[in-house]
Amino acid sequence: MKKILALLSSIGLLATTSLTVVACTNNEVKRFDTPTLEEKLRDQMIMELLQDPEFGSITNGKYFNSIDFKDVVLKMVQETTSKLANNHYNEQWSKSLKSKPISKDESFQQTKDRLSKIAQNEFYIQYTTRLLADSKVSLDSELSGSTDNLFLLNPQDLIKTKDEIDPNDDYYIYYNSAPGVKDKWYRWNFYGENKNAQDSIPSIEQLETSQFVITNDGTEAVINADIVKDKDRFYIDAQGKQINPKNGIYSKDKDGQTVFVMNGKTALEYRFQQYFNAKIKTTTFQNLLTSTFLANDTFTTKYTEPTKISDLIELNQDLYYKSSSDLLKYVQSWNKNDGYKSNLKMVWSATFDTKEKAQEAYTLVEPFLNSDGSFIDSNKHALKEAYEKIDAINKTNIGTDPFLGMKGFNGFVQNDGDSVKSVDGTFALADSTKALIAKANSPAIFANNGQGYESKQVGKFDIALVLPIYAVDLFSDKDKTFDYGQSTTLYKALGVDELWTSLDDANNKNAQGKISDSKKTWINDHQAGNIANILLIDDKNATLTLDEWNKDHTDKITLENIWDHAEVSGLKGFQANIKNTLPAEKTFGNVAIGQDKVVLTENFEGLKPTDPEGKFIFTLEGKKLSVSTPNDPSLIGTVKQFGAVWLSFDKGSTGNVYTRDEIHENGRTVSYKINLGSGSDHPNDMVVDGPFNFYLNSQTSLDVTNLNKTKKRELLEQVEYIVSKKDGMSKNAEAVIYPLFLKNDKILYKPLYEALKEYLEDKSKGGSSD
């Protein structure tokens, strides 16, 4: 029985043996109703396992059939087929683009991240809804105290050892007492947990902005604790091994690399690890393969005129979105005569105690709106800007969206004739709003002439906020000088020294979006004459060129004075780019990690650089300078100096451009912008083409365009997941992917079968079966 419990635990069906106790007492595991590609593969592989003489002791044993082994294998097949399919697509794209394919482990990690992020978003809404509810019982207390669930809180089994036993019995999660406060931490617990006399649960604001850490050393009956970052801390490496001694704090980022802090969404996954794996992740397994297919079917390669992006790199193919793809057709309809029509929208409800309060709220947002509720100019004003005007009197008990941080999130709706239907989330507004929402093709607020709509919160009144989703906002960038990721995008607030990768990162003080100290120093030292593509950001988060700003203001801003310019009323700061490679300064950018040979230049003058630590091995053949680089992810985004030479470790685009990041055959990173056009002669005609201009129709959303790359990626993956649930979509994926797996002579069937076989072999060794 132990090996079956291990099998259940390891593939995410159940998280730990304590959960398995519940699974073995007639509690049913959630099943999926519709036969799928994965079920067909599961049944075929089980049939082969039954006939395989190597597995007679397992497949003929009573435990093979005593629990729903078919369901276990189904979930393993679902995840493994998605991983293999994603790796297959990555290899095909690399062949087309003549770049080095990413490793299988990296490709598999992409699939795991997709599953995890979608599940995190789903749970984030659920958890923040409870925080807003008028309830005396926290979700923490409910999930851990219910006799039906018996879910343990906090992380379990984090350290991998040769015996697969974590030597640490208890872990705790701490969070900053307030955003920006780094030295005072609270231990996350509910009333009674660890003998505490009161709740210490992070607020929605803290989930969005605070730092979270995990420690295996917690003191009972203490609510807060001073945590010293560098004292008694151990880390976990990518293989789950403890690499520093003693008790302390640690976490892992999405790539399994050691980091110190987590964001709120990731912390929720660790806090509720058992519940998350057993209840949240299992609901997303069913559509994982289809969403993987959609992510790779949305764009294609096309030959172009050779493009020289550096002395060493010349490209002859580019990426283009397929306007006929299932994803783009689901999100929007588009033609040059009628422009864009939105098919998919995000919806929020703001709730007020009285009609008078609803009228007060409408008065605050009315200056943003046309008479029909649409925004007068969505190029200059964001929906969240209007939301923040009324947030103080908003009494909604519905949770917060994980992308913009606006409470009252009803989820995503799709047009359904003259109405809308919910496709992800719970629609809580009055039915009378559905026709208005269906017609909305730009950001909009509907308030029933200021009276509000009768709310499902009895006796209260709602206002509807609507945000259409368009491919242009997700995938395009107003900066038309994209250079295949060969420059660093930076955001700098006027009068402030810090540098960020985007405005969104700066606004939210996102630690992962802060430009590293070494890169910041290098940019400061080399910005004169090298900073380009300046876009000013005003206090409404709208972008302006220098000319657009200067024509209306006496305080002129120039390329020469912008870097050290003092604060200016109405202006936040600026976005700019600096080349990663500056030959005159002997700086070589876009250096990839873990490469045997990265060609830096074929025209090097001077002494060969050396690394005193021996981690970087330089080679000089005539004037051709190359370097061997260690596989150290902490190098990404940094600059290291070796004598007169600087190496900049840049991985793709760090701005608001949706790209595909590759490693060129010479070891330098390249980002391919995925063009919204029909070909090299019209690379952008879905955005601007003749008299048609998407941005002139006030349909764009600053809320989406100003998201950082990480949040844009998460929003895109959520949209892909939503589309994957549409009727018939799995059939489309099956028609393409099924032939890769169907027979044992197909290219992906054998790796899938071998993965299952190898796993069962490992689990069948050692231990008793009782």
Outline the structure in words.
With 770 residues, this protein is α+β, with helices and mostly antiparallel strands. It has 4 domains: 1-17 and 37-97 and 727-765, no CATH class; 126-283, no CATH class; 341-469; 487-676, no CATH class. It is built from 24 helices and 31 strands. The longest helix is centred in the N-terminal third of the chain and has 29 residues, at 69-97. The termini are close together. Residues 1-37, 56-68, 219-259 and 762-770 have low confidence and may be disordered. It comes from Williamsoniiplasma luminosum.
In short:
Keywords: Signal. This protein is an alpha+beta fold and 770 residues long.
Topology record:
Elements: H1 2-10, H2 17-23, H3 37-51, H4 56-59, H5 62-66, H6 69-97, E1 99-100, H7 104-132, H8 139-145, E2 172-176, E3 185-187, H9 204-209, E4 212-215, E5 224-225, E6 249-252, E7 258-259, H10 264-271, H11 273-285, H12 288-297, E8 299-308, E9 314-321, H13 326-331, E10 332-335, E11 339-342, E12 344-352, H14 355-365, H15 383-390, E13 409-416, E14 419-424, H16 434-439, E15 444-446, E16 453-454, E17 461-468, H17 471-475, E18 487-493, H18 503-508, H19 517-526, E19 531-538, E20 543-544, H20 546-550, E21 571-579, E22 587-588, E23 598-601, E24 617-621, E25 624-628, E26 639-642, E27 645-648, E28 659-664, E29 669-675, E30 688-689, E31 692-693, H21 702-705, H22 709-724, H23 729-741, H24 749-764
Parallel strand pairs: 9-29, 22-27
Antiparallel strand pairs: 1-28, 2-3, 2-4, 3-5, 4-6, 6-7, 8-9, 10-11, 12-13, 12-17, 13-14, 15-17, 16-17, 18-21, 19-20, 19-21, 23-25, 24-25, 26-27, 28-29, 30-31
Signal peptide: 1-23
Keywords: Signal
Protein name: Lipoprotein
